[in-house]
Amino acid sequence: MEQNIEDKLLLAKLQDKIKFCRNRNKIVSTEFLNIYQNKLVQNKLNELKIKKYIFHGGFEEAENKLLILYPEKLNKEIVLNSIDEIINVIKITLPNELTGKYKHRDYLSAVMRLGLGRERIGDIIVYDKEAYIIVLKENAEYIKNSLKEFTRFKKTQIKTIKVQEIQAKTPELMPIEIHVSSNRLDSIVSEIAKTSRNKAEELIKNEKVSINCRYEYKSSKQVNIGDIIIVRGSGKYIVDNIKEKTKSKRLAITLKKYV
């Protein structure tokens, strides 16, 4: 992976946490990491041959996860049993008149207005009647009490719950097949956004396109199976399969769109 200053800073912090864990024999955790950061950190852990760690985001399908390092004297089960000392969950229950009115962006924008960095907040699970906001324990009470002051949440019930109480759901995915000349990003974005290659290039240059939670500026970037692509205004997709059509030599790419 090509590293920028932020990547190098993240890896430097990781090195510090590894040393702290070893020297103090204590459990150490990072803030929430997005998909790209998770891969970056995972590669570094592999390189350093670190074995005593887990990634955890509150539930199995979480995209944003924090890294938890633990000393040799502990095991994974002990760490998982103490997860509530690291992660808490804000549960918001809506009154009947607001059922189905709030979307993911409504909850996220409210939390971001509190002045916390995105890395302090994990995934947000949204249902018609309720939502679960996964946060670092150290920020949980502040977030809960602050959200109660928002006009949009005046009639809601807001409380802090344990990770085990999350009602998680598997993302709904709709399969879509597109046919392109190559697996270049601009070619795929053009099909997703139903626009020209030139317009697709503009979207990429103007930070409208991300791969694995990182803006991508190269139109020629090769997209691979498992990549998550977000095109602003056109949705979020995971690349499920890439195969060449024998006769036309074009690629048939299967995407799964988050709905």
Write up this protein.
- This protein is an alpha+beta fold and 259 residues long.
- It folds into three domains: 77 residues, Ribosomal Protein S8, Chain: A, domain 1 (2-Layer Sandwich); 79 residues, RRM (RNA recognition motif) domain (Alpha-Beta Plaits), CATH 3.30.70.330; 86 residues, Structural Genomics Hypothetical 15.5 Kd Protein In mrcA-pckA Intergenic Region, Chain A.
- The chain contains seven helices and 13 strands.
- The strands form three sheets. A six-stranded antiparallel β-sheet has the order 8-13-12-11-9-10. Strands 5-6-4-7 form a four-stranded antiparallel β-sheet, covered by helices on one side.
- Strand 9 and strand 10 form a beta hairpin.
- Helix 1 packs across helix 2 and helix 6 packs across helix 7.
- The longest helix is centred in the N-terminal third of the chain and has 20 residues.
- It is globular and about 60 Å long.
- The model has no long low-confidence stretch (mean pLDDT 94).
Summarize the topology.
Elements: H1 5-24, E1 28-33, H2 35-48, E2 53-56, E3 65-69, H3 76-81, E4 87-93, H4 104-112, E5 121-126, E6 130-136, H5 137-147, E7 157-161, E8 173-180, H6 185-192, H7 197-205, E9 209-211, E10 214-215, E11 228-231, E12 235-244, E13 251-258
Antiparallel strand pairs: 1-3, 2-3, 4-6, 4-7, 5-6, 8-13, 9-10, 9-11, 11-12, 12-13
Helix pairs in contact: 1-2, 6-7
